Amino acid sequence: xxxxxxxxxxxxxxxxAAAITARRLVGRLAFYTFVVVVGAFFALPMxxxxxxxxxxxxxxxxxxxxxFTLGNFPDxxxxxxxxxxxxxxxxxxxATMALVVATAAPAAYALSRVRIPGxxxxxxxLLLFSSVVSGTAAxxxxxxxxxxxxxxxxxxxxxxxxxxxLIPAGIFMLKDFVDSMPTxxxxxxxxxxxxxxxxxxxxxxxxxxxxxxVIGVWVFVNVWSNFLIPFILTRxxxxxxxxxxxxxxxxxxxQANLRLISSFGLLYSxxxxxxYLVVNRRYGFxxxxxxxx
Amino acid sequence: xxxxxxxxxxxxxxxxxxxxxxxxLHIRDGEFFALLGPSGCGKTTLLRSIAGLERPDAGQILxxxxxxxxxxxxxxxxxxxxxxxxLYPHMTVAENIAYPLKIRRVGRKDRRQTAExxxxxxxxxxxxxxxxPGQLSGGQQQRVALARAIAYRPRxxxxxxxxxxxxxxxxxxxxxxxxxxxxxxxVTTVYVTHDQAEALALADRMAVMERGHIRQLDTxxxxxxxxxxxxxxxxxxxxxxxxxxxxxxDGGCDVAGQRLALPEIVRGQVQSGEAVVLGxxxxxxxxxxxxxxxxxxxxxxVLENLGVDSLVTIEIGDLRVQATTPEDCVPALGDRVxxxxxxxxxxxxxxxxxxxxxxxxxxxxxxxxxxxxxx
Amino acid sequence: xxxREAETPAPPLPASAPPEAGATALRTRGAVAxxxxxxxxxxxxxxxPALWTLxxxxxxxxxxxxxxxxxxxxxLDNYAAALGDPxxxxxxxxxxxxxxxSAVIGQLGLGFTLAxxxxxxxxxxxxxxxxxxxxxxxxxxxxxxxxxxxFLDTHDGxxxxxxxxxxxxxxxxxxxxxxxxxxxxxxxxFSMLLCGGALSTLPPSHLETARLAGxxxxxxxxxxxxxxxxxxxxxxxxxxSLWTFNDFSPYLITAGGPNFGTETLPIYIFRNAxxxxxxxxxxxxxxxxxxxxxxxxxxxxxxxxxRN
Lengths: 293, 375, 308
Ligand SMILES: Nc1ncnc2c1ncn2[C@@H]1O[C@H](COP(=O)(O)OP(=O)(O)O)[C@@H](O)[C@H]1O
Ligand SMILES: [Mg+2]
Fold this sequence. Notes:
The structure holds 3 protein chains of 3 kinds.
Chain A (H helix, E strand, L loop, with lengths): L2 H4 L10 H35 L20 H4 L6 H32 L5 H14 L6 H10 L6 H25 L3 H9 L4 H30 L2 H6 L8 H10 L6 H26 L10
Chain B lengths: L3 E9 L5 E10 L4 E5 L6 H9 L6 E6 L2 E2 L10 E4 L11 H11 L4 H14 L16 H14 L4 E5 L7 H18 L2 E6 L2 H7 L2 E6 L2 E6 L1 H6 L4 H6 L6 E8 L2 E4 L2 E4 L2 H4 L7 E6 L4 E4 L7 E10 L3 E8 L2 E8 L9 E6 L5 E4 L25
Parallel strand pairs in B: 3-8, 3-9, 6-7, 7-8
Antiparallel strand pairs in B: 1-2, 1-4, 4-5, 9-10, 11-12, 11-14, 12-13, 14-20, 15-19, 16-17, 16-19, 17-18
Chain C lengths: L27 H29 L9 H4 L7 H8 L1 H33 L5 H15 L2 H11 L6 H5 L7 H4 L1 H26 L3 H9 L4 H12 L1 H16 L4 H5 L10 H11 L3 H29 L1
Helix pairs in contact in C: 1-15, 3-15, 4-9, 4-12, 5-9, 9-12, 10-11, 12-15, 14-15
The structure holds adenosine-5'-diphosphate (ADP) and magnesium ion.
């Protein structure tokens, strides 16, 4: 039941009971119409991805498979780029995740706990640059920089650029986690004589584990979905991640292979959707600026 | 065990707050010592400086005669219980209690054994040892924090408002428990609180602090009966002390246009025309419904039931004065009453600096039995 | 270390290292070592490119030809050229319409509406709708782009089927509207979740007080809810505007066409710089985009600061 329908209206001198009932009915009808329209708006474009991969003869229209098959998935093996590109995506995502977590975590910890001179300015500059400099706005120098470093067409180039863009937001999210941990945890350990290393190992890391998991997943999802950076930095189709390869499947001239696109698109989408739902269930997601999409 | 000495300790925070100002203090071996003061007076800063968590700008800290000013916290041999207990949520209760021993590289078996024996002495037993702190009640968490401090076997205990996160009833129980525990262990204890009742109840001696200074260093009963200045006078006592401006004249004084006798002992130390402040606890004045010649009189404006007594607010000229009356002689609202201070308990302070007008060692309270526990 | 030590009457500490204050034993030098790797990566791959963009925009750098070997400093010529290029003006306009339509009206409007009707509504239908919106946000954009190409297809598209075999060539006749709707579909979840979070921070007693006074839903919304979460709405608006200004995904559907009808600034930059290899000119347009970003970001940081 919609909340609006449940709203009591008991103002003094209110209209008669019949009028209220009629108004409620209209309100309820409008409410359900809205919900149905919005639901259809979000569901219909997605429907194709649910049906077409299992259709032996998919078309662009979303309809239940005319001839159900699972054969589209083994057929992906025949395409030289499809499955390797998923592996490329995995490598890119994991490498960027490792790099971001490994660098942002210590930075966030130090920025949260130590009064370094100029810390607030540094945080401000980081926040400003990370929101101002997008991959789109800096694509020219990013391309040139990676070119000059000889990293064009390498996964290292993509990883470094993506990590540079994600680290500031990663630092802010992790700093929030560390800030939320009472300093008395570490202080009490210090009073008992724990060394800095023991404090990090026994107290800070276990406490920050959910934060690290959330950041890790957040980086993974972002890199897995990112199109622009690998698109401008990779030339060799064998090195492209799935985001670029699937685009090539439907943007290149000629008749699009819908069996390939649909089954590959589903395979490529599932990991991030599952990851998101799992993490969301466990930790709840926090939202920050970044390079989503 | 050890005594604790603080010499000229000063701490100025960036931004200029002088949290500790050239502070001297000696805490005796085995003593239960309370640091009392309003929020922001520097109690926590003092405690943290003793622990080594705060760097003093000047001064020295000696534990058992050894200068520890420049030692890291872990080398000072003291245990601290924080206001939020600082129990690690990812460790079990037993692991929490034994964590100090883990740092000292005590073996797993011995750690478990210590956790069990110390826990048992604090009623932490059975299944509780293997639960997480988050699954315990506030009172249980507090005992786990105590157990962890005890398991460390320190020379000094530091407590920062350890009872303030408990609800009122539990706090009283924990207070009694803590006092007995300290007696049994005999470990020198520094206890920070902003609750005057807690300090009075627990401490052997106490320091009342204001803005980085100690305003009185004494036994609880002396702090209660003979506050050294109006600051301490107004801070201690569950019903606030009446502080009445008065002018000395002819061996007595004028209060809001009425006449009141001064205690004999201070008469020689004040001059006619001198401005003073009279300190009168509500408990130390009689309320009379019939006229008393040496009393302050006025109508009753507010009546509050305190259980055993009632608190009466009387309007005397432009002052409001409070006094307690026993349950059998409560006046009615609007009644005119006469207020007669107990001359032995009436305190006189200088109006200019708020210090109590000095009385010799043969103070009139010397015979009171309340002082018995002081030394 | 502190200048106030001079005024302190007590004897100062000996000069040797005092115990470190603060929670950890991490000293300033250690802290710098902790921060340095992250900072180095950010400096090289985020801050340096931004500054280089500003410089490149003042040159005639190209990837091929003489200018590749020996780029000349040409001052503001690129900017003059941009102002003289009707395609640039068109691109700026398209971007503004795209941001206003998809971020402000689409994502924020729909997102807030959904958050508002979800408040206090439990049940399976709510969960299904919420998950649909979120999944639309999570699916990678290169997949979403194709879903919309299929959905809007002239002959086989599901939309035309729903409308009764209308055969409307959406992407050809209504290209800008199409990508606006596409981006609304893709991004509403963020605003919905953020607004939902903001609404949940509202103390129930506020709304209950208004209800006791007889306020209707609409009056509660206008008088209590919107003023209370204005800060959240504003930060949300600024964030999604920033992202939409820099959104490259329309390229995946229309590649800027037909006839430059969906050529937003990011696509314009991409075509000039990385398709035609006019790197200097592309950088100049990028610099304009950076300035737009900077303005939005500065307002955003101000709002954030005020809210704290
Ligand atoms: N880290 C700090 N930085 C700046 N000022 C501080 C800091 N810690 C405490 N202070 C200030 O020092 C004074 C004493 O604080 P504290 O010792 O915590 O008081 P208490 O424990 O008595 O409430 C307060 O005015 C407080 O604002
Ligand atoms: Mg304190």
